[in-house]
Amino acid sequence: AIIIFAFFIIFSQKILILFGKEFAPGSVPLIILSVSLLINATTGSNSFMLQMTGKQNLELINTLVSLILNVMLNLWLIPKYNITGAAVATGFSLFFINLVRLSEIYVIMKIKPFNKSFFKPLFSSLTAGLSILLMFMIMTGAEWGHLILYFLCFIILYTGIYVLFGFDEDDKNLISIFSK
User: Fold this and answer.
1) Closest CA to 3 of 174, 151, 119
2) 34-60 residue pLDDT tens
């Protein structure tokens, strides 16, 4: 998710221009929704964890709170900020409910959601993303070929930086699964 997120952040306007110049103003909502969906992906399956541990009533309350918050924020922000307001409302609702779920999992189950290995892909993507952004500033172009080239370069840089940090136990388990 972090690779796709970084690509959408860096090239949001160029991606939308491919569908027509009139789509370019949608780059800010695309970035806002990308950030909120990355946070959603980063927090993991906390909703399912609550449900599978017998806390489905708590998850029902969480979902209702998220729904009410999203509707209220949309009613307030869309008239003022149009599509960007809708993106902010949805993004904030996702962020808030995931923060609530993480807190509930920590308090109820005493499970810490993140450890130091969380920062390795984050640093790798930021470093690769900034490198590709520099490359993008030097070589402009919004054609599909350019975007594919940028994306491939990003993946190669990301992988190289990730490997330089070394493999932890989870990485080794994934490698052994895929090598079979």
Assistant:
1) 151
2) 888 888 888 878 888 889 989 999 999
